[in-house]
């Protein structure tokens, strides 16, 4: 069976592969949306922290002999701790200033982090083995799906939906939202708003670290792995709506699928289709698909 001259098997294969890429887009854009939506900071260092998560996992396995599952938990915690240090020593002084200052600071952090890893490991990639439990593949009939890629989609969806539920449907999430809009009022109820803000930034960058660990067995771990991806992720955040949690999740997954299908119908256009979608959305709805119009 063919659709527009394309075999259905090839179409479904690219659809699933696009969903895998979309899972990374959703995870990374979710972290950016959390940080911007709750702290009003444009975190340009997100790609470098994604790379740091992958490298920390690789280092833990290579130097310390720890397994993948330990590093899947430990690496994001370490990235989150690094983010907390950044927030407490640098970012917190910029909250009341223009967004540009936060953007410049996090861009500088990106250059420093990438430079440190590049000085130790160069630009060549490091091999990261798929964990034994997720090795192999499953025959779906129309394609053979690697088990690890299926795990990436499942883990990303679980973390993304869990984060959305926590922020939008729990008391903690209500405190977070209220603390960014009226911190003095929330502090009057005994809530430590500065600590809450610090932990929120740490959590947002930990999501980037988690995505880095998930990506490590699929792509080579190297210092510039987040540089190109962060531009795409910013496009996802803009299309979904700056600060919109659900917008980031839905848009990330959807654009990954669109990119995958474009590779079937018009491969030369696959690297630019996301930015064309962004242009159209900004022209028709400047606040993004899920953003709130002011």
Automatic annotation (TrEMBL):
GO terms for molecular function: transmembrane transporter activity. Its main location: membrane. The chain crosses the membrane at residues 66-86, 98-117, 148-167, 199-219, 231-258, 264-284. InterPro entries: ABC_transp_permease, BCAA_transport_permease. It is found in: Cell membrane. One of its GO terms (biological process) is amino acid transport. Keywords: Amino-acid transport, Cell membrane, Membrane, Transmembrane, Transmembrane helix, Transport. It is a multi-pass membrane protein. GO terms for cellular component: plasma membrane. The keyword Nucleotide-binding does not apply. PANTHER family: ABC TRANSPORTER ATP-BINDING PROTEIN, BRANCHED-CHAIN AMINO ACID TRANSPORT SYSTEM PERMEASE PROTEIN LIVH. Belongs to the binding-protein-dependent transport system permease family. LivHM subfamily. This is Branched-chain amino acid ABC transporter permease. It comes from Rugamonas brunnea. The lineage of its organism: Bacteria, Pseudomonadati, Pseudomonadota, Betaproteobacteria, Burkholderiales.
